[in-house]
Amino acid sequence: MEIGIQIAIDGPAAAGKSTIAKITANKLGYTYIDTGAMYRALTYKALKEHIDVYDDEALSQLLSRIVIELSPAEEGQIVRVEGEDVTEAIRSQEVTSNVSAVAAQPQVREMMVEKQRLLANSKGVVMDGRDIGTAVLPNAELKIYMTASVEERAARRFVENTKRGIDRSMEQLCQDIANRDKADMERIASPLKQADDAIFIDTTSMSIEQVADTIIQHAEKRKGR
């Protein structure tokens, strides 16, 4: 039986990481893990319980007592918190606006990294996020850093929001994404950056299938080593 490899995909908001990671995992027969959904799930629960999204201690205590489940589904993944299906709820504008603050808390990140490493214990996994190649899976056989222009990412997020019934203008989305980039890159704990050994892919002018196929080609080369 062929032993798979670990594929770490990092990049800024709305770069297409989750979509590409799902397709890549499906084509390779690997397990897909959306770490961003874990931070969103914690943010959702914190907002619901009126916990300050800048309170590292309170957030860490919350994270230690709740169960976040990621289950494979036809569309990619179902996210549950304490048994509640929050797959759509964690994509709300309120969660999106607060998740960077939650993800920036050092103790929260430390706990999340431990959880994420446990999920990726077995080989044959595609994990996407902001610090996968640099902090969560530093020894992954294949690391990808995926990005696109702010305008392109805003356009993608606009399409997603329209499907979900979220009213947000392109101008607002461009500003949201620029702010998110700044917060992710400047945070103290595991800031967003390209790992030294990561392959850089600008997806601005590429189709979803082109990006997935590019990653799969790199994965096949790594598997052959």
UniProtKB/TrEMBL annotation:
Primary localization: cytoplasm
Name of the featured protein: Cytidylate kinase
Pfam families on file: Cytidylate_kin
Lineage: Bacteria, Bacillati, Bacillota, Bacilli, Bacillales
Extent of the signal sequence: none
Source organism: Sporosarcina gallistercoris
E.C. number: 2.7.4.25
Source domain of life: Bacteria
SUPFAM superfamilies per UniProt: P-loop containing nucleoside triphosphate hydrolases
Subcellular location: Cytoplasm
Record: residues binding ATP: G11, P12, A13, A14, A15, G16, K17, S18, T19
Enzyme class, broadest EC rank: transferase
UniProt similarity note: Belongs to the cytidylate kinase family. Type 1 subfamily.
